[in-house]
Protein: Amidohydrolase family protein
Organism: Serratia fonticola
Amino acid sequence: MNENKSRREFLSHSGKVAAACALLGATSSVGYAANPATANCEADRRMKITDKHYYLDNVLLEAGFEFDGATPVSTHTELKTLEINQGKIVALRDNRQHADSTLPVYDAGGKLMLPAMRDMHIHLDKTFYGGPWRSLNRPAGTTIKDMIRLEQKLLPELQPYTQERAEKLIDLIQSYGSTTARSHCNVEPTSGLKNLENLQEVLARRKSGFDCEIVAFPQHGLLYSKSEPLMREAMQAGAHYVGGLDPTNVDGAMEKSLDSMFQIALDYNKGVDIHLHETSPAGIAAVNYMVATVEKTPQLKGKLTISHAFALAMMNEQQVDEIATRMAAQQITIATTVPIGTMHMPLSQLREKGVFLMTGTDSVIDHWSPYGLGDMLEKANLYAQLYVRPNEGTLSRSLALATGDVLPLNDKGERVWPKAQDDASFVLVDASCSAEAVARISPRTATFHKGEMVWGHVGQGSKA
């Protein structure tokens, strides 16, 4: 109800701004006599801060933990003013203290400031989102090769809408606080490079407010669909990562498939991000083979992400410890959607061993799944529910999954974010602290990327 209320208030506020623009005959911005701060009157009626240098008052920041022994039991906060200039937080000031009285002033309304979130596994190029609702039937026993055949039929139908729907998906994840993403993008004979070209056009338009890496993804199998030449073209065309898919279940040749994937990455100096769904012994073998490949190939250190990695759930505790130690040494990343159900991933064990974890939406209302909210705070909440014993400290630590390990407080309760010269990329949340935001999946009110407000609204501030 609170989220719906805040959205109604936002729409009402936005409508008033748009009406003011129309009455004043403005086409790009509206001036407020009480304050020189300006806001664009966009076609979609969203308020956008256009100033490069401004103050943001009444920002609620975490200041420390209160401990009972070694256990955090509550979080201290304080209101501050941020000075933002050219996309950076250049100073944290006492609240409503403005060293330069000529600068525009905005008001965060006492909302909690958290680091901007990162949706690091999403498919922006193929979705029903933004179009009519569709929920496709996937009968029991449907195999991944059945899904490949379905994709070969559906992708030409979806391609005319790729750009429009990718824009809608970006809007969605920004509304939940994400300003950075990694999108897998189909590169296979059915799509050719058209999905990549469409996505690149969208990302070029959204560049000022959204950072996104692209994984060239051979969804129909690197070997199975003979996609290697297209994948090499995608690298030359600007894709950031080489993708891959189930080297045994789809390609039918684990070592050859993985070797081909890694060779493309080496030839073009790119990273690797593979979908690995396999839970059979072949999946475990694939994990071990990839880790061993990175260990003997220094150029690949820090460049491998294993997405899903369900095979890790099939390992016992000792096996996970051993492979996680090797992964951490090679800076291998695991991208997880925090799956629910019978599969219990060893995510907390991986974190304890120093493996970098990140999360993402994956599918959003498409032919793979009718679910997917685009909310990384929801993923942090799921992680906390499934993998930690809840208290103020563990709940606040769980936020790291959503933010790329950026947290306001360190384990000792010392503020480490934000600090001067950090990017002004953050989300304002209707919560009292990180722990509450994670536990309650609290509503977001505004999202900023490098100083630009890309979603939501804030108030007009006043001179101190």
